[in-house]
Design a protein that fits this description.
Helix content is about 0%, strand content about 50%.
Length: about 120
């Protein structure tokens, strides 16, 4: 049974940094693609960053140059380093796993989801 548990969310000032973690279990971590998504109330969930099973990354234009996705196969953990945070980054952040080969930012490509961690950025 796939389980994904996010942590590391919280509050930050604009220009600050946070690092999100996603601890995974129940499957062979290195053989799946993974991604980070975010959602604010009343809006659709959007892809933020993704990494394919081979390590190729993909980022939304809104976070390019500020966010970095990475994974530690030995620890079965996915990370999202968020720098130069902006108030518009405020959202619930979710990690997800996909059995596909790519690094899609489309939520429909993902099969399992964590419960989310809240990120709030104040100006």
């Amino acid at each position: 049974q796939v389980q994904l548990v996010e942590s590391g969310g919280g509050s930050a000032q604009a220009g600050g940094s946070l690092r999100l973690s996603c601890a995974a279990s129940g499957y062979i971590f290195s053989t799946y693609s993974m991604g980070w998504f975010r959602q604010v109330p009343g809006k659709a969930r959007e892809g933020v960053a993704a990494v394919s099973r081979s390590g190729i990354t993909n980022y939304a234009d809104s976070v390019k140059g500020r966010f970095t996705i990475s994974k530690d196969n030995a620890k079965n953990t996915l990370y999202l380093q968020m720098n130069s945070l902006k108030p518009e980054d405020t959202a619930m952040y979710y990690c997800a796993v996909s059995r596909s080969l790519g690094n899609s930012l489309f939520p429909g490509a993902y099969d399992n989801w964590g419960q989310g961690t809240q990120v709030t950025v104040s100006s």
